Amino acid sequence: MMWAILSILVENRPGILWKVTNLFRAKNFNIDSISVGTTPDPDISKMIITTNTDEKQIQQIVKQLAKMIDTIEVKQLDEHKTVYRELILFRIKIKSAQDTMEINRIANAYGGKIHDAKKESIMVELTATPDHIKSFEELIKPFGIIETSRTGIAALQRAGT
Amino acid sequence: MIKMENMIGAKALMVALEKEGVKQVFGLPGGANLPLYDELSKSNIRHILARHEQSAAHMADCFGRVSRKPGVCFATSGPGATNILTGLATAQADSAPMVAVVGQVPVAMIGRDAFQESDIIGMSNPCVKYAFQPRVPAEIPEVVKKSFYIAETGRPGPVLIDVPKDVQQNEAEMTFPDVVKMRGYHPWTDPDIANVERAIQMLLGSEKPIILAGGGVIIASAFAELQAVAEMLMIPVVTTFKGKGSFPENHTLSLGPIGMHGHAEANKLMIEADCVFALGTRFSDRSVGTFEEFEKRLKIIHMDVDPAEIGKNQTAQVAVVGDVKTSLRIMIKMLQQKAFKKSDDNKWLKHVEETKDYWRKNLKIHPGEMGAAKILRKLREILPHEAICTTEVGQHQMWASLFFDVIQPGTFFSSTGLGTMGWGFPAAIGAKVARPDVPVVDIAGDGSFNMTENSLATSVTEDIPVIVFLINNYSYGMVAQWQRTFYDRRMIGVDQKGCPDYVKIAESYGAQGIRAQSLDELEKAIKVGLKSDVTTVIDIPIDPEEDVLPFVAPGTPLKDMILPS
């Protein structure tokens, strides 16, 4: 099994996201995370899809995506030559002022930002790699995670690689 | 210079079709495509009325396969559109060029579950090469141009145009483009010369090479090129079922189709080969049995126009992506420049000849006068080589694969990928429209023919005579065979109990019905059919217990082929 980051440029038209995800469904490929946004060219959108499967399957996914008429460019990004980040919001339970301080300390260590600090809960915003997010999550789990919301990853390969 | 003109959407669609050289559409009118039909009546395009939208789609599909230009079919919205889905899926599975134009409820009604509304764009997505829904009339000329471009280039396929009724009715200023470009569509790849060279080295370096020709050879019309390469290198040729007739089956190097119901000699030699040169094939399960067995031993060279086919079902050591005809031409040129020496003492070829000879002499066939092998060989004996054959789906189709040799390449068509029962007869009508100068025969079974037999109305009223060679065991014979073989003869849902009488069915439509119960009667009937200017249904009762053999059971390797005992 391997984790792959796919960067896909598509025509910015209604229904394209559905076609891409429908292709994953029809070929029985699983999507780990997906993020979609516009690009400086208003006619083009970019999708970053991550998936976890074997090497052969990933090659097949890339080929099937490239075959789609609405895709303009399909690239598998090399994890080690790519900057990739995901944004996540945590709402965490607070029982004491001590908890608030402790969460502040951990969030600072991870480069997180504090929002909406209330008596009974606190919100932390974190932009990091999925691995970092996971280790942060482990640390704050004992306080009690009320809810989260995450974006899927944004990724750009480093220049000249 | 691009001329601008004011006209309604429906008219623009007809003008655009005429610009694509469309001479006829197969279709059925309804509420949501009335404006299209109104303009069709004023155009120079012939309308061929089908009696079911599925049949209209199959007619367009096979017209496209034979003429290698997209066939066009029309249907209304809702059920009209859903009825063509099977036709789209069939064309997609067999890479047939086709453009389907369906009506849709007006733009403002879309999404409101209006009368005869169906989300055909959503439903058809997995079974079309592309689908368009023009939202304003001015989009129509470009949409039609793009549809034909997509349908007929690269790996061909069906394209759907879903036209809301108001888009058909409203007027706009139209410009008809001469060329279209889509930045995400690159149908042709130039074959990599280095890989062609590698393929040649691999073939020359192998002791027991075999060519596996798929449907891609027929689509690319690369018959002469295939034959040239086979003869230059003296490599025997097997085909997939879809590739049947890509190579003359009376050629000394021809072994016929491999697969579930392949020729015994083809399957036997396929598993003995050490190098497979595969052309335009997806290595379907029906062709190669279980993949793992296949992959282990063999060196594989894969040539295909679709890069996504490389490595999908089969890992290849050498892959050449590109049009098969172009790629083979490059190979021929390279071979001509090489001064390679063919060995006179070719042990493999000698073995191939012996194996072929043995099985051609010793394969047991049904002993009865009207056994499948005998009636199909009789058909071959009488039918001119340029005649086009289509088939339905089932036992008769596999018997045709085994016992009906295709001599002139590109004259045999079948629903091989989706396996759509009912395809063959409307397909024969489409083929006859594409080639009115040659006889067209639907090699049929009763179960399949029963599904679209109302196309007799089309063939009679539209004056498109074909021959239906109806191999009749009054049962869904292939299902019956599997029930006999795998379910301990627990027969269910397969007996048609002698109903209907196909001679009377033919006559009631104004066609000719002939029952043939001996080989003499059959010969006479075929000759009558060939001379007739009306469709002829030859009803040929056979033994309902006759099995198709050899048989490779599903999920098993080719070496476990079951032979007739």
3D structure, described in words:
The complex is a heterodimer of chains A (161) and B (565). With 161 residues, chain A is of the alpha+beta class. Chain A has two domains: 2-77, ACT domain (Alpha-Beta Plaits); 83-157, ACT-like. Chain A, domain 2 (Alpha-Beta Plaits, 2-Layer Sandwich), CATH 3.30.70.1150. Helix content of chain A is 30%, strand content 43%. A four-stranded antiparallel β-sheet of chain A has the order 2-3-1-4, with helices on one face. By secondary structure, chain B is α/β, with parallel strands linked by helices. Chain B folds into three domains: 4-175, Rossmann fold (3-Layer(aba) Sandwich), CATH 3.40.50; 193-361, TPP-binding domain (Rossmann fold), CATH 3.40.50; 364-549, Thiamin diphosphate (ThDP)-binding fold, Pyr/PP domains (Rossmann fold, 3-Layer(aba) Sandwich). Chain B is built from 24 helices and 20 strands. In chain B, the strands form four sheets. Chain B has a six-stranded parallel β-sheet with strand order 3-2-4-5-7-6, with helices on both faces. In chain B, strands 11-10-9-12-13-14 form a six-stranded parallel β-sheet, with helices on both faces. Chain B has a six-stranded parallel β-sheet with strand order 16-15-17-18-20-19, with helices on both faces.
